Amino acid sequence: MTASDTRLEQIRAWLRMELGLAVVRMEPASADASFRRYFRVWREDGATRVVMDAPPDKEDTGSFLKVAGLLARCGVHVPHIDAHDAARGLVLLEDLGSVHYLAQLRAGADADALYGDAFEALLRIQLRGRDAAHELPAYDRATLEREMAAMPQWFCERHLQLQLNDEDRGIIADGFGFLANEALAQPIVFVHRDYHSRNLMVLPSRNPGVVDFQDALAGPVAYDLVSLLKDCYIQWPRARVQGWVSAYRARLGATARLGGASELEFQRWFDLIGLQRHLKVLGYFARLWYRDGKSAYLADLPRTLEYVREVVRSYQELQHFGLWLERRVVPLFAAANARAMGAPACP
Questions:
Q1: Are 65 and 84 in contact (CB under 8 A)?
Q2: How many Cβ atoms from other residues are within 10 Å of residue 332's Cβ?
Q3: Tens of pLDDT, residues 269-301
Q4: CA 255, CA 249: separation in Å to the nearest integer?
Q5: How far is CA 103 from CA 107, 109, 202, 205, 228, in A?
Q6: CA angle, corner 230, sides to 227 and 233, nearest 5?
Q7: Cα dihedral angle (291, 297, 302, 305), rounded to 10 degrees?
Q8: What is the per-residue pLDDT for 36?
Q9: How far is CA 16 from its chain centroid?
Q10: Regarding beta strands 188-191 and 90-94, do their DSSP bridges make them parallel or antiparallel, or are they unpaired?
């Protein structure tokens, strides 16, 4: 945050001149993997709010505002919107604090209690949000495959410096096609798309506060659950994860077949949409470094790759993809990550 930041001057002028807020202090609150920034502001009476800065040439506040309204109707605790200016890309929000699930979990907080609250919120999203899901774009084949395509481009070719040949590309295409088919076979619900420990805020009441939901789509029922329980930022023993998955499925009940015909079917949905997500994340985390100069996500690549390897080993349909992964990708990974983490920011 520098004095020459013209966006900051726009924010200050908007708060003071158009909203009539006497702001005595403003500090960075957080940033995310997009072009959005967040600032916490203090009023004279000590109350705080958060300003979302979303440059309109790079971000669309319209989707944020729409999804916030849909989730609020479901009874989910999203930040209340006090004011917004679409032309400037500015939104004034309720302050949900600065303590997210990840910090509390790493500090030894009761995971069952925290995840219990997260499950309650997710049930509201998936059950009360059935009508709202029809107002969202579809998580269609083109989107699923476009996301996974970041893996060969940014993770394999750029990060690992692996030159992919025709055989490689054929194996990748077959694996991606299988995963897209499996995703499209799941029941469709309201999908947050980043329902994980950094986007769930710990609150004394109506916990959790849910943020970073603007990319929501109508898609596979197991997507948000796997985002939460096979989180790219924190990992749990497989047996514990399976226990949570089973308990969540029981809560879904028979509503519109959301829980599947059996625990085995629901676990398959969970595993395979998780694999789609984690392949995407390998590419996205690498892209955040090589394109955007954001290095923090490199440290989370080993955990994400291990999630991929775990699922691939468990499904016969992915045998060829798994053999390719172990032969062509895994041997290059440790050196590539060490090389990248020791390098200066790339243009």
A1: yes
A2: 14
A3: 999 999 999 999 999 999 999 999 999 999 999
A4: 11
A5: 6, 9, 9, 18, 14
A6: 90
A7: -60
A8: 85
A9: 33
A10: unpaired
Q: For the chain, how many residues are written?
A: 347
Instruction: Supply angle C-alpha 22, 26, 32, rounded to 5.
Output: 135
CA-based nearest residue to 307, from 239, 249, 236: 236
Q: How far is CA 145 from the centre of its chain?
A: 17
Q: Specify whether the CB–CB gap between 208 and 77 falls below 8 A.
A: yes
Place of tokens 């300003």: 51
As given in the structure block, the two tokens for residue 347 are 């243009």
CA distance 151 to 277: 11
pTM for this model (two decimals):
0.93
Phi, psi dihedral angles at 144 (to 5 degrees): -60, -45
pLDDT digits (tens, 9 = 90+) for 103-150: 999 999 999 999 999 999 999 999 999 999 999 999 999 999 999 999
- Residue 166, classified by CB atoms within 10 Å of its CB into exposed (0-12), middle (13-18) or buried (19+), is exposed
